[in-house]
TrEMBL record:
Keywords in alphabetical order: ATP-binding, Cytoplasm, Glutamine amidotransferase, Hydrolase, Ligase, Nucleotide-binding, Purine biosynthesis
Catalysed transformations (reactions): N(2)-formyl-N(1)-(5-phospho-beta-D-ribosyl)glycinamide + L-glutamine + ATP + H2O = 2-formamido-N(1)-(5-O-phospho-beta-D-ribosyl)acetamidine + L-glutamate + ADP + phosphate + H(+); L-glutamine + H2O = L-glutamate + NH4(+)
Name listed for the protein in its UniProt record: Phosphoribosylformylglycinamidine synthase subunit PurQ
Subunit structure: Part of the FGAM synthase complex composed of 1 PurL, 1 PurQ and 2 PurS subunits.
BP-aspect Gene Ontology terms: 'de novo' IMP biosynthetic process
Single GO molecular function: ATP binding
SMART domains: GATase_5 (SM01211)
One Pfam family of this chain: GATase_5
Gene3D superfamilies: 3.40.50.880
């Protein structure tokens, strides 16, 4: 399986995502924001970072870059797409996922090992988890507060589209503790925490299990290898 990782000006976790894909057993393919070519990949990762310097609004300029027209078409056709942090912001800016992401409610950039609860396993990127599973994934963002109107929030809850929820502490003021979403089809997932930073023993976050969960993020990338959602 070939998984493309798009580099935008200001991306800084693209190489980490490519390494995670390789560790999962797939072939990472570097994609460039200025092209209209997905190079025949089977899935796509929009990595974290500060695309276009976060000017205008996080993810807003990247969402209008040439390659995103191809990504939107591919996602609408069923191709698995994962948006991580800035990638999540890009997904909401392209309306592949609903809502928006705004400045953290405390006004500060935050970095922490964040506990999450897996709310949905019905997606290309979460099928390797079990519903209700608790995982620990690194988090780092300044504009990670998820917002949507009440009717959208109710629909997300009612249709089981909340993929991940923050546990112990809400780090950025996200409504209803939402840390990540999936779309109705289950091929598009976005989240603020960084699973690509928890894929190798000894390099993931410390927990009460003394590094046992340092590879919680790897399941995102192994999930897509066995996904039945592939286009």
């Amino acid at each position: 399986m070939r998984v493309g990782v798009i580099t935008f000006p200001g991306s800084l976790d693209d190489r980490d995502a490519m390494r995670a894909i390789r560790l999962a057993g797939a072939e990472p393919v570097a994609l460039w924001h200025g092209e209209h070519d997905l190079h025949g990949v089977d899935a796509i990762v929009l990595p974290g970072g500060f695309s276009y310097g976060d000017y205008l609004r996080c993810g807003a300029i990247a969402a209008r870059s040439p390659i995103m027209a191809e990504v939107v078409d591919a996602a609408n056709g069923g191709m698995p797409v994962l948006g991580i942090c800035n990638g999540f912001q890009i997904l909401v800016e392209t309306h592949l996922l609903p809502g928006g992401l705004i400045r953290n409610d405390h006004g500060d950039f935050i970095r922490r090992d964040q506990r999450l609860r897996v709310e949905s396993t019905d997606s290309a990127w979460t099928n390797g988890f079990t519903a209700g599973q608790e995982i620990t994934i690194p988090l780092k963002n300044g504009e990670g507060g998820y917002i949507a109107d009440e009717s959208t929030l109710d629909r997300l809850e009612g249709e089981g589209l909340v993929a991940f929820r923050y546990l112990d502490v809400n780090p950025n003021g996200s409504l209803r503790d939402i840390a990540g979403l999936r779309n109705e089809r289950g091929n598009v997932v976005g989240l603020m925490p960084h699973p690509e930073h928890a894929v190798e023993p000894g390099f993931g976050p410390d927990t009460r299990d003394a590094m046992r969960s340092g590879v919680d993020g790897l399941t995102f990338f192994t999930s897509v290898l066995k996904s039945s959602v592939l286009s």
